[in-house]
Amino acid sequence: MFFKLSDLYLLAPEASLLLMALVVMMVDLFFKNRKAVVWVALAGLIISAGFAVSQALTLTGTNKGFSGMLVVDAYAIFFKLIFLFIAAVMLLSSYEYVNKYIKSSGEFYALLLFSTIGMMLMASSSELITIYIALELTSFPLYVMAGMLKRDTKSAEASVKYVLLGAMSSAILLYGFALLYGLTGTTDLAGIAASFSKIAQGNIVVLVADVLIIAGFGFKISAVPFHMWAPDIYEGAPTPATAFFSVGSKAAGFAALIRVFTFGGLGAVNNSTTVIVLSIVAVLTMVLGNVVAAVQSNVKRMMAYSSIAQAGYILVGFIGSFATGRSEGTTAVLFFILVYAVTNLGAFAGIIALANLTGGERLEDFKGLWYRAPALSAGTALCLLSLAGIPPVAGFWSKVFLFSAAWSLNQSWLVIVALLCSVVSLVYYGRIIKAMFFDKPAKEDRLVPTMGVTTALVIASVALIVITFAAQAFLNVASPAASILFK
C-alpha cells in the first residue's frame, strides 16, 4: 500500500482526535484531574471538528487516500460532524454522572473518543476490510463502557451480552464481506460495483451476501430481529453510555450500511428481493419497537425500544433510495439522523440529570418533575415532543421529509405502516410528559441540575429550535452529501 503526504490531510480529523485521546490518558494517569481530562477531551473534539470543517471548505467531490481505502466527501464530513457533536454533548452531560458513579473516569472519556474515531472511519471507509476494522474500533470501547458500573450486576450483564452478541454480528458481517470478495475478487466498493455488471440477476450468492450484511449492520442499528441486545444493555449500562449507544452507534451503522449498499452497487443484482428483505426488517422494527416501548416502566428501557422504532423509520427512507437508485430518500435519511441525534441527546440529558438528582430511572421517578425542576422538564419535554413528531418541532419536519420522500419513491405501504406506528409512539412519549407535568410530585423540594448536564440540555434544545426554523436549509446541506453516493 502506498500513500502520499496529502493523504494525511484526509485523515486529519481522526488523527488529531487520536492524539488527543492519548493525551487524555496521560493527563488522567499523571495528574488525576477529572476536570482537566474533560477539557482536554473537549479540545480534541473541537480540533477534529476544525479539520472536518476545513475539509468541507477546501475539498470538492470524492477524495480518496491510502490506496482508495479512505474516502472524504460531503457524505463522510456530514457524519463526522454529527459524531463529534454527539461526543461533545455527551462529555458535557456525563461529567457529574461519571464523577458520582464511575471510578475510572479517564478511561471512560478516552474510550468515548476512541469509539468516536471508529465511527468517523466507518463513514469514510470505502473498502470492506477498512470498514470492518473501523466497526470493531467503534464497538470495543462500547463493550467496556457498558460495564463500567463496577458494583452493578446489571452493568456487568450488559457488557457481557454486548460482547457476545457483538462478536456474533461481526462474524456474520465478515462472512457477508467474504462472499462479496469471493464473487468480485476485490474489497474496494467501487470495484465491487463495477464487477456486479458482469454478474447475472438472480445470483443466490449475492442475495446471501446481502442478507448477511443486513444482519451484521442490523445489530449496530438495533433493527429487528437483531435488536435483542438493545433493551438489556441500554438498561444496565451507565446512562451516558446508553445515550452514546442510542445515537452514535446507530448513526455510524447507518453511515456504513448506506455507503456499502449504494457506493458498492449492491442494488445491481437481486434488487427486488433485497428490497423485500429490507422491507420486512423495517416493518418488524417499527411495529415491535413502538408496541413494546408503550408498555415499559423503566425509562431507559423505553428509550431503547424507541431507538429500535426510529431505526425502522430510517430504513423506510433508505429502502426508497435503494429500490430506485435516487438520492431523495437518502437525503431525508441524513436529515432525520441529524434531528434524531440532537433530540435523543437532549432527552437523555434530562434522564441523566434525573438520575444524578434522584438516583431513579423509572417512570414514577419523573412524577411532578415540572414542579421540582421546571427548566429541566421543559427541555426534556421539548426533545420528547420532537421524537414523537409533534408539529412544529424539528422531529415533525424530519418525518414529513422522510415519509414524503419514501412515498414519492413508491414505498407508500411502508409509509402507511410508519404513520400508524408513529401514532403508537405518542402513547409512551406522552406517558413521560404526563408524569412530569400532571402527576403529583413525590416530594415538594426543588431539584437543581448541575452545570454540565444543564449546558448539554441547553445546547440540544437550542440546536433543536434552530433546526425547526431552518429545516429546509439543513435539508439542503444533506442533499449534496446524499447525492454524491449516487453519481
UniProtKB/TrEMBL annotation:
It is a multi-pass membrane protein. It comes from Ktedonospora formicarum. Residues 125-423 form the NADH:quinone oxidoreductase/Mrp antiporter transmembrane domain. Belongs to the complex I subunit 2 family. This is NADH-quinone oxidoreductase subunit N. The gene is nuoN. One of its GO terms (cellular component) is plasma membrane. The chain crosses the membrane at residues 12-31, 38-57, 77-95, 107-123, 129-150, 162-184, 204-230, 251-269, 275-295, 302-323, 335-357, 369-391, 411-430, 451-475. Keywords: Cell membrane, Membrane, NAD, Quinone, Translocase, Transmembrane, Transmembrane helix, Transport, Ubiquinone. NDH-1 shuttles electrons from NADH, via FMN and iron-sulfur (Fe-S) centers, to quinones in the respiratory chain. The immediate electron acceptor for the enzyme in this species is believed to be ubiquinone. Couples the redox reaction to proton translocation (for every two electrons transferred, four hydrogen ions are translocated across the cytoplasmic membrane), and thus conserves the redox energy in a proton gradient. One of its GO terms (biological process) is ATP synthesis coupled electron transport. It is found in: Cell membrane; Endomembrane system; Membrane. Its EC number is 7.1.1.-. NDH-1 is composed of 14 different subunits. Subunits NuoA, H, J, K, L, M, N constitute the membrane sector of the complex. One of its GO terms (molecular function) is NADH dehydrogenase (quinone) (non-electrogenic) activity. InterPro entries: NADH-Q_OxRdtase_suN/2, ND/Mrp_TM. It catalyses: a quinone + NADH + 5 H(+)(in) = a quinol + NAD(+) + 4 H(+)(out).
